[in-house]
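Can't paste images in this forum, so I'm doing it all in text. The chain is below; anyone willing to post the predicted structure tokens underneath?
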Amino acid sequence: MFSKLLEAGIKGERHVIETDVTPIPVLHLWGTPFEKGFAYGILMGAEILLAIRKSEEYAIMQYKLACLDEFIWLPEVFLQECAEQKLEKSFKDVLFNMWAYIR
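Text version of the structure:
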């Protein structure tokens, strides 16, 4: 694999240190700053994409929570009643009771 990377102009090597918990990638890069950055992107591509995906999921979840806190408000008494009843009533009954609290 290393010879293929050199043929493609990748100026770097990827090694992996095996541990009890998780493997740790170690890179050996050389060349200009651009060549090092390019090699880093190629050699760590899967990890970079995973980090971006996880960051997007986290940001979307935080956005959803912020929207729920900002735009959807239910009285504490209603939430307490729902918790006590464990929503054993039908959804229509719970919805009807919610409007009684809001009015």
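The chain has two domains: 1-71, 73-103. The helical segments are 2-7, 33-43, 45-71, 76-85, 91-102.
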